[in-house]
Amino acid sequence: MPPSSFYGQSLACIILAAGMGTRMVSRLPKVLHPVAGRPLIGWLLETVQDLSPEKIIVVSGPDKTALESAIPPSAILAVQSDRKGTGDAVRSALPDLKDFSGDVLILMGDAPFISRETLDRLLTLRRKTGAALAVAAVEDGDPSGYGRMILDAGGFLNRIVEDKDCTPEEKKTRLWNPGLYCVDGARLGEWIGRIDTANAQGEYYLTDLPKIASADNAKTAVLICDKADEFTGINTREHLARAEKTIQKKLRRSAMAGGATLVDPKTVYLSWDTKIGQDVTIGPHVVFGPGVEIADGAEILPFCHIEGAKIGPGARIGPFARLRRGTVLEDDVHIGNFVEVKNATIGAGAKAGHLTYIGDAQIGARSNIGAGPSPAITTGSTSTTVSTSTKRPLARAANVCVAFSSDLAIGAETHCRPECDSSLVATVSATYSATNNLAEHTERCTSFSISFPMQSFGHQDHP
After folding, report:
1. Could you tell me if 306 and 384 lie in one domain?
2. N or C, which end of the chain has less CB nearby within 10 Å?
3. Considering 305, 354, 415, 462, which one is annotated as catalytic?
4. Running DSSP on this structure, what letter comes out for residue 269?
5. Domain count of the chain?
6. Which tens digits make up the pLDDT trace of 166-202?
């Protein structure tokens, strides 16, 4: 796509994001509510950034702290202190547009799914017609609650009338205002200064711009769009649920088009950033949180929950498995039912078949974790290492807990299995500390079991 210079001059974007989310019944700013694991404003920012604008200005309410972390460092955060309407919100951005004379796009932060194509068309319309103002209009869907667009005989916009201010005749108009504007930056400041509060709400309406432009004999071009879903604002929890449904359909279609099999697509929930390779099979009722990467040929069985995990080629997960942030599964790993993994790396070909928790650990290639083991750090900052490779120490943490619940208690022993010719035996205390002789022993032997107080771990890779 061409950068903003394609349109003949520089571009700035203003995103109005000061809405309190009153109808959401939430303390969270409206634009920070997530869809597919991503804040609403994140979707819009991605589209806007693709235009390569000279400036992006996000208008926040007084509680700007929550919004700061959701916008890129290159964006400017302006504050609307009193929330006196959309016109007042744009006024809050004007100090950051001093002497700017290019195109200014004004977008609503609670309508996050406007396409790049629509923005391109609106910008091109203003430049080609020479209009000082260009606005989008929708003639699809239900216009209730939206301002009505009243056109003149030449097809240009005469005025926008807010829903609460419409006469019965004006309410019959099917063309409604989605809140997308492209304005000549050289005139924006003056026109915003002329907006008054003579309306039912007593607020400064941005919808007054076409009337003000007309008073200056400036035309307002209209881009008529037929995709209402692209513009629908998200103001309630019900709207949020509808948006989630719409986005999930798109994400599922994209995954299947990329070579993944979704056995029952409507029950699979993807995150906005889920990366899925070819020939991946995903069973019913699988939920992905942010930060998941799945390599080619992996299989996710039903009823799994996965977030922040990297899944290697040929891995098989589930059913009823949970992978949490920091999990890395190498090639051909098998994670079975009722297994939870957090912040752990599991080596190629390793298996944890069922009823296991693995946390803050490194599990070596071809390890087999039996029912109930819990390889995890209990103290210290280093990680548990369990390996079947010769000359690789069993434990590298000063104090580690590797194993599953049993009837063993303090005083249990660490010993080799009968097939090993070593006679190493170590007594376990309340807090087990890895010792040099154990580490040296595991350099020679790869078949052993370790029993900790109340816990036990076993593996075998004996020649």
Report:
1. no
2. C
3. 354
4. B
5. 3
6. 888 888 888 898 999 999 999 999 999 999 998 888 9
